[in-house]
Write a structure and sequence with these properties.
The protein is mainly β. The protein has no helices and seven strands. The two termini are about 20 Å apart.
Length: about 90
């Protein structure tokens, strides 16, 4: 990987075991992004915004679908599982 965003990048790296793609979870202000990386060169392939969910947790990517927990501002009781097709 050519660019290290901060010291915590390893814990925020995700791999799609079915498609074989690698994604880096990246927070930019109030938006979360998944940056797809080329596994051979480390170059950015595309940036996938997760725009409506600013507090996301426990991301898992399977077969080009992102599963994650979203915690709205009302606290832990409001956590729900969501998915986005990419």
């Amino acid at each position: 990987m050519r660019v290290v965003f901060n010291n915590d990048w390893e814990s925020r790296m995700h791999r799609d075991p079915v498609a074989g793609r690698f994604y880096l979870e990246f927070l930019n202000g109030q938006l979360s992004y998944l940056i797809e990386l080329n596994s051979k060169t480390g170059d950015e392939v595309r940036k996938i915004p997760v725009p409506r969910y600013k507090h996301i947790d426990h991301i898992n990517i399977v077969n080009d679908r992102i599963y994650f927990l979203h915690q709205p501002d009302i606290g832990d009781k409001g956590k729900k599982l969501y998915y986005i097709d990419i």
